[in-house]
Amino acid sequence: MQDWVTKSKAMDDCTLxxxxxxxDRNAGRKGACHEDSAVQLAxxxxxxxxxxxxxxxxxxxxxxxxxxxxxxxxxQNRPIASGQIGREVTIERLAEIFIELQEKxxxxxxxxxxxxxxxxxxxxxxxxxxxxxxVPVVYNSSGYERAExxxxxxxxxxxxxxxxxxxxxxxxxxxxxxxxxxFCAKEALAEMVRQTGTPVFDGEGMMKKGVIVRHMILxxxxxxxxxxxxxxxxxxxxxxxxSIMNQYTPMEWAKEYPELSRRLTAREYEKVIDFCLExxxxxxxxxxxxxxKESFIPDFNYEGV
Length: 305
Description:
TIM Barrel; single chain; alpha/beta; ten-stranded mixed sheet; 10 strands
């Protein structure tokens, strides 16, 4: 493992994410992620709405980091992703939060959009482990990662929970403002699978090690969803689990994109699920009922921070 002094230098000329903005975040300049080197959090608490093997009955100990290297026009967490909401915490406090979540019987520590804080997160995990942190650590990501940054997390993360949003890079540019999304997602995912290997579950069905890839279907774009799922299955088979999400929620800040102004139809979701069955996907999760509700979006009120 690199020591903290070496890793912190990544903030002097930041290239942690694929945008490689070269911001001197240690000097207080904000990068493409909207954040400098000070860790900003919006919420830390038990979360019941992850996949069953992540939340279980006790809840996942989610820590929502402010900032994001993507710019998705439909982002449900836009107030924190854009850096509008966030409370600064020290690395020592971050480690304490991990321990506090464990004391609340969290099934795991779930790091939500932490890619631009990887060096600080590693240091906090080190401190937390020294003070008794023993539950699995989940890295919950947009999928837009550099494989080199993911490699820094080896030995610190047990479960990877990345999105794979697009196969079509034109869609990625149109809706998220990023180039080469599919290339970056593929490279990062390969590193995640290399680290974790075959999924491991305990006797109660809770994941202890492995990768779950999430894909949220966008209205009108089932064709791209099928290409994402085909790639995942042909490349990884049963080595990963795939979570197929129907929870797209139209947000008022995406009104400039009329094609995204509606929810996914039941027929669209069924078409994608039928395709998964046709190509032989077995290790997967689906969403039932009305998951596309704003009530499923956490209240970013600094709980637990």
